[in-house]
Amino acid sequence: MTAGRYTAVFTGLLSLKKPGEYTYLRMGEDPCAPDGYTVDVGRPPYGEMGSEISFGELPEACRRLVLDTYRRVWNL
Question: Are 40 and 29 within 8 A, CB to CB?
Answer without folding.
Answer: no
